Amino acid sequence: MLYNLLVPLADEFGPLNLFRYLTFRTGGALMTALFISFLFGPAIIRHLKRLQPEGQPIREDGPESHIVTKAGTPTMGGFMILLGLTVGTLLWADLSNRYVWAVMLVTLGYGLVGFADDYLKVTKRNSRGVPGKIKLLLEIAIAVGAVWWIGQIAAEEHANILVVPFFKNGLIDLGIFFLPMAVFVIVGTSNSVNLTDGLDGLAIMPVMITAASFALIAYLVGNAVFSNYLQIVSVPGTGELAVFCGAMVGAGLGFLWFNAPPAMVMMGDTGSLSLGGALGAIAVVTKHEIVLAIIGGLFVLEAVSVIVQVASFKWTGKRVFAMAPIHHHYEKRGWAEPTIVIRFWIIALILALIGLSSLKLR
Q1: ∠ Cα 134 67 73 (to 5°)
Q2: What is the pLDDT along the chain (362 residues), one digit of tens a residue?
Q3: What residues make up the domain containing 215?
Q4: Which of 30, 84, 85, 299 has the fewest CB atoms in 10 Å of its CB?
Q5: Cα(75)–Cα(108) distance, rounded to whole angstroms?
Q6: Into how many domains does the chain fold?
Q7: Cα separation of 159 and 179, whole Å?
Q8: 196 in a domain, yes or no?
Q9: What is the CA radius of gyration of the chain?
Q10: Hey, which residues does 161 pair with through a beta bridge?
């Protein structure tokens, strides 16, 4: 909004030229989202506690310690993240950029699905929420609409391209198969982040690391000079998503203030589904879907651990892990919750560095 309002006046008042710079507006979005989280966070938490006097429902088959440590902690704190993210983006992004609106569509759409799921869990006092098939169908429908829209915005030669990192000419034209692949990326990332959100602070830091990484990727992909130098696909207009990613980092930092162990609030599906969907959509727009699997490798690990556990038990009757997702396995093995969280943060940071190295290694 500020870009659209103030940049036309820059010729008359020179300092307004600052609003032309993505780096300045990305920093502004980050600080705005952080401020919004700090300002409204306590009131949101108080309201959630009034609505949820018993806190979020605890899984009956979950770690025994959660019955004590998580009891009474409200969920749906993802609303705080979405508030900061939305305000930060709308205030600092170029609102004529359709990529921004496409990613916002996924973020808020998945946020509504997550909110409905959280609301049913809280009001019905069980950990199931919206039936899995219905939730998955809604996620797929939103992703299909967003991917179709992204395809209409993108240049025709790049619309159905899958970029393979670490290769100079690693471009694969998927044709009609790009749609299901992109939908899988968005839905898969959303649910992977959702599975990771099981301990205080566990999911939000890797989300911020991934968002910060994609802020850089979006900036470089959207800049013809940098993308040509790095020999990566240039997608004009994607640089504006750096502002969105900055707002996500700021909102995440603000949320972590309240979600740090022992958490005052949980993000719930309202936050995890929307943030994961946003990251998946940004990867699709910037043509870095495979790099997302590297940078967000922690989310992949969490999802794979569940798949392996379910498949093993179904086919052999035996469990590979003491409990899935894998962070619960380490809880069962006696690791303290802060130990698991911090070590997983370190893994997320290492994977981000590996993923970002793909930008130069061609």
Answers
A1: 70
A2: 898 998 888 888 888 989 999 999 999 999 999 999 999 999 999 999 888 876 666 555 555 455 445 667 898 999 999 999 999 999 999 999 999 999 999 999 999 999 999 988 888 766 677 898 999 999 999 999 999 999 999 877 778 999 998 887 788 999 999 999 999 999 999 999 999 998 999 999 999 999 999 999 999 999 999 999 998 999 999 999 999 999 999 999 999 999 988 899 999 999 999 999 999 999 999 999 999 999 999 999 999 999 999 999 999 988 999 899 999 999 999 999 999 999 999 999 999 999 999 888 76
A3: 2-357
A4: 30
A5: 18
A6: 1
A7: 10
A8: yes
A9: 20
A10: 173
- Give the Cα separation of 134 and 151 in Å (integer): 26
Residue type, 202: L
Burial of 215 (0-12, 13-18, 19+ CB in 10 A): buried
Give the type of residue at 79. Answer: F
Q: Is residue 362 part of a domain?
A: no
CA–CA distance, 28 with 107 (Å, rounded to integer): 20
**Checking phi first, is residue 332 left (phi over 0); if not, alpha (psi -120 to 50) or beta?**
alpha
Between CA 279 and CA 289, with CA 285 as vertex, the angle to 5 degrees is: 60
Is residue 170 in some structural domain?
yes
Query: At CA 106, angle to CA 254 and CA 159, rounded to 5?
Result: 125
Can you name the residues that pair with 162 across neighbouring β-strands?
172
CA neighbor of 233 nearest in space, from 309, 306, 332, 165: 165
Q: Are 289 and 181 in contact (CB under 8 A)?
A: yes
Helix (H) or strand (E) holding 173: strand 171-173
In a domain, 320, yes or no: yes
Is residue 245 within 8 A of residue 292, CB to CB? The reply is no
The total number of residues shown for the chain amounts to: 362
**CA 114/CA 78 separation, integer angstroms:** 9
Q: Mapped to the 3 state alphabet, what secondary structure does 34-74 carry?
A: HHHHHHHHHHHHHHHHHHCCCCCCCCCCCCCCHHHHCCCCC
The phi and psi torsions of 162 (rounded to 5 degrees) equal -110, 125
Cβ atoms of residues 108 and 86 within 8 Å: yes
Asked if residue 300 lies in contact with residue 290, where contact means CB atoms within 8 angstroms, the answer is: no
CA–CA dist 163, 192 (Å, integer) = 22
